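for the writeup, i need someone to sanity check this before i put it in the appendix. the sequnce is what the collaborator sent (i think, or maybe the updated version? ugh). structure was predicted straight from it, no edits. if anything looks off just tell me and ill rerun, i have time this weekend
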Amino acid sequence: METWNRELLYSEIWETPLSKLAVKYGISAVALGKVCRKLQIPLPGRGYWAKKEFGNPVKQIKLPEGKNLPVVHRMKFARDQANAIKSKSAQLPIDDPELIRIAKIEGENFDIEPNLKHHKLVSATARLLKHAPTDARHILYPPYSEVCLDIRVSKTSLDRALAILNAIILKLESLNLSVTVERGPDRAGVVIEGRRALFVLVEKARVKSRREVPLGTSTTTEVEYEPTGQLEFRVGGHGYGCQKIIKDRKHQKLESSLGLCVGAILREGRNLRIKEEEAQRREAEDQKRREELEKLRGKIEEEEKKVRALDTWVNNWTRAEQIRKFVSVLEKMWAKDGHDISPKGQKGQRITWMKQQADRLDPLVHPSPSSILDRKDELLGW
């Protein structure tokens, strides 16, 4: 059991991204972040590493004097375990032009100009939301039947939210991307290579008070909410864990992370394309496998047909040999008993017929003797 070196960890935190440094210590980035907070070590803000990568100026927060610091222990981590985790932490290729372009956009700072004319979608959304009702959390929520940008904020935060989305939309259009709005839950999205990356701007609400109110012979809890003013820009589908979230932080407002918001949309478009290509690849592989299995099924059926034919031949040959042995014994018995077994005699004709039946069954006899049974198919359909 060891303790963390606060000064050393501070210097490492500002030299190496949290996710990579966590690999060195064999813990998750979340756990390492908790250690830093306990030791009152400031962390780089959003966009810090992207700016630093492209040579943009960055500001490092000084290590404050620690007050009432706890003793934080850490487990020694075996080197082989650390190497195992490191091998699993494969990074995306740094020479990917698309990722380099996105990272460059994420590192850009573009300010919100207060006197800038609103985009037509923003203006239309502003007119609609200013008269929209609010829900139990005091959040504006227009009906699904209305066509507007997906903004779910309080009336107090509406102007700020509109300004943020206006800046993001104008930046997207400067990248030759179009923003579309539709009716229903998936209101707003950015069309990227024919795929729609969804986004929404929301405001968090918190519980203001709780009180028990009478309900018939019992009581129920009535909860009152209030908006917090904290905004979140969410990109992606609505499933749990499916969205990328950029939000207001204690020392950094959403307005200073607009590059990250645009980058999140571009990354979502890229992920949608990769998922679609992967689905197409799997479908092509499945189709190829289905065709292979169909050919295999045909070969197996053909082989089974041959096996059945062989079984029929062997069974018929065996049956024919049994009949011949029986006829031989019967012929000797009738002769011994003095019966006429010549071809003109009744017993003789019977023996000749039985031998013909054996030849009809025997697959080795060609041509097979004719029989009235050969005309049985003529009766079908009559």
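The CA atoms of residues 26 and 79 lie 9 Å apart. The first strand starts at residue 2 and ends at 3.
thx in advance!!
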